[in-house]
Amino acid sequence: MGSRWASVAGVWLAGLVGCPSAAAAQAVPELGVIGMVTASDPAIAAAGAYGGLRTSLRTRVSAAALAGVSDGETAWRGELLAHFLLNPTRLRGAGVYGAGGIALVSGPVDRSYIVLTLGVEARPGASSGWFVEAGVGGGARLAAGYRWRRFPAGWQGF
Predict the structure, then answer these.
(1) Predicted confidence band at 25 (pLDDT cuts at 50, 70, 90)?
(2) Mean pLDDT for the chain?
(3) What b/e readout covers 114-129, taking b as 16+ CB neighbours within 10 angstroms?
(4) Contact 14, 33 (CB under 8 A)
(5) DSSP states of 54-122 as a string?
(6) How far apart are CA 97 and CA 23, in angstroms?
(7) Is the pLDDT reported for residue 7 higher than 80?
(8) Are 115 and 139 in contact (CB under 8 A)?
(9) Distance between CA atoms of 94 and 83, rounded to whole angstroms?
């Protein structure tokens, strides 16, 4: 006789393992550059690399690694965010999204933060576009950058 939680975990794991080829065929990888300023104490200004993966039509998971300056010293910031896209297939104009997750900061002070942000990105259904975000996560958080996307052949959305 096994644990109920073990059974639930087994079904969940089997679902993940059984679907990777279908999920991978529809996933949309994104790479980019990002600049960010936060009004924490002390404030940080940083720039770095961005990577994301659209896991469904309206969802994306992203990670960013940034290096910069805080209180005159070298500082690092890493973020892991989950996004919800309101206009994911627009080929022209801007699309809006919200994101939330965590940030880890190292430098004059070592801290972690909850991040909540709203963003606007150009042409979210096209192969590239700029983005701008405003939110909180270590004080007020402003970010901007550029993303390049690789859609699967014949992509019509998910």
Answers:
(1) low
(2) 86
(3) ebebebbbbbbbeeeb
(4) no
(5) E-SSSEEEEEEEEEEEETTEEEEEEEEEEEEESSTT-SSSEEEEEEEEEEEEESSS-EEEEEEEEEEEE
(6) 22
(7) no
(8) no
(9) 16
- Residues 72-113: tens digit of each pLDDT: 999 999 999 999 999 999 999 999 999 999 999 999 999 999
d(CA 101, CA 94): 23
What six digits make up the tokens of 96? Answer: 């809006």
Give the integer Cα–Cα distance in Å for 34 and 149: 15
Q: What's the Rg (C-alpha) of the chain? A: 18
Q: In angstroms, rounded to a whole number, what is the distance separating the alpha carbons of residues 42 and 107?
A: 10
Phi, psi angle pair for 13, to nearest 5°: -65, -40
End-to-end CA distance of the chain: 40
Whole-model pTM: value is 0.81
42, 103, 35, 31: which is closest to 70 by C-alpha? Answer: 42
pLDDT for residue 36: 98
CB of 63 closer than 8 Å to CB of 56: no
Q: What is the pLDDT of residues 117-148, one digit of tens each?
A: 999 999 999 999 999 999 999 899 999 999 99
